[in-house]
Amino acid sequence: MDNLIDILDLSVEEIDELVEKAKDIINNPDAYREKCRYKKLATLFFEPSTRTRLSFESAMLDLGGYVIGFSGANNSSAAKGESVADTVRTVGCYADIIAMRHPKEGAPLVASMHAGIPVINAGDGGHNHPTQTLTDLLTINMEKGRFTDMTIGLCGDLKFGRTVHSLIEAMSRYAGIRFVFISPKELKLPSYVVDDYLVKNNIPYEETTDLMSALPGLDILYMTRVQRERFFNEEDYIRLKDSYILTREKLSVARPDLTVMHPLPRVNEISVDVDDDDRAAYFKQVRYGKFIRMALILKMLGIE
Amino acid sequence: MNIDGITNGLVIDHIEAGKGMELYNALHLGDLNSSVALIKNVSSHKMGKKDIIKVDEVLDVDLEVLGFIDPNITVNIIKDNLIVGKKHIELPKKVTNLIKCKNPRCITSTEQELPHIFKLTDPKTRTYRCIYCESKAKEN
Ligand SMILES: [Zn+2]
Description:
The complex is a heterodimer.
Chain A: H1 12-27, E1 40-45, H2 50-62, E2 66-71, H3 84-91, E3 97-102, H4 107-114, E4 119-124, H5 130-144, E5 150-155, H6 162-171, E6 177-182, H7 191-199, E7 205-208, H8 211-214, E8 220-223, H9 234-241, H10 248-251, E9 259-261, H11 282-301
Parallel strand pairs in A: 1-2, 1-3, 3-4, 5-6, 5-8, 6-7, 8-9
Helix pairs in contact in A: 1-5, 1-11, 2-11, 3-4, 5-6, 5-11
Chain B: E1 9-16, H1 20-26, E2 36-44, E3 48-55, H2 63-69, E4 74-79, E5 82-87, E6 94-96, E7 117-122, E8 127-130
Antiparallel strand pairs in B: 1-3, 1-4, 2-3, 4-5, 6-7, 7-8
Bound molecules: zinc ion (ZN).
Zinc ion binds near residues 106, 130, 132 and 135 of chain B.
């Protein structure tokens, strides 16, 4: 694999391989501490995303490598008007691999055409964020021990959330998956996602506005943020927002082996009284995110 | 120029009625010194109405452009009043700098020197998508 721009660049086999590698790292971290010795990761964050950048940098440091880079357009060459192509040509002379975040869609693809070293898309606007999807996949596999035969509920903003669309895309490739989409009518899953991934692959799904009625049937509940700015008026937002907040009380109707996920940061869509419930996996998800990025860096550098 | 027949040149036929001008512009026919005729709303058995373009010069036509606009177009090459060749039009797999990506969030909106490249993603619906942001090309 040369670059990772879109989650669909990876075959199911490659995803399985990455997940297995990440699990091996989790079980034998010491065996990996020196794997990337003298290798450099450049984190080029043309827009800040502390969470994602720290995950990439920790991953490289835990592999014994070094990290260089910048965060925020003001601190970068872009502020002086340099093109993405020229920036990565320069960085390609210093580093062995790039993780790039950019506000414009397609910027990491442009980078991959000119860098001469592997490029990982660490998020390009609302477009692609493949390492978030890999994180979600590792979390599902770690918590459930499998990728097949489960009912996945996605709740909140299903219209604009690219993370949600990518997860549906990725999970649609496994057998025995059922989806339940829980959202206000205003934030329903776009029809092209339904047509392209679900109808085309004959995947059963259900759409509902009611979290409580959907909860008992779920193996996984993936929560997302319902943002105020997505609503035309304040009234609708106030009326709807509480219906899509997960609380300990609501969880009482859910299965004991439910897994609750969230890409973070959360605002109030999961109340803090859920945090110490065994079913809450969203902070574990952060931890898994580092391990899957370690597996990815190794794979892209061709290190066993 | 006799617009019924030409001695040496090209006849671009079976253009969907109304698209002749678009084609005229896409092929930069306005820059030519030779005679060019754009004939609109010609009645046709197959199509009801169609447009035809005749050029009094054997041009090297960009088939990619034609195929992108409409793969049903035919091109006849005329020499000494005879059709000596027909060019076969295909839906191009990729078009470069023929259309522009209009998505304001696309990297092409800020990096002026990037080529605008669209890839054919669904031949059935003739869907082209920007290789950077995956936006659909606006339906012509
Ligand atoms: Zn674009």
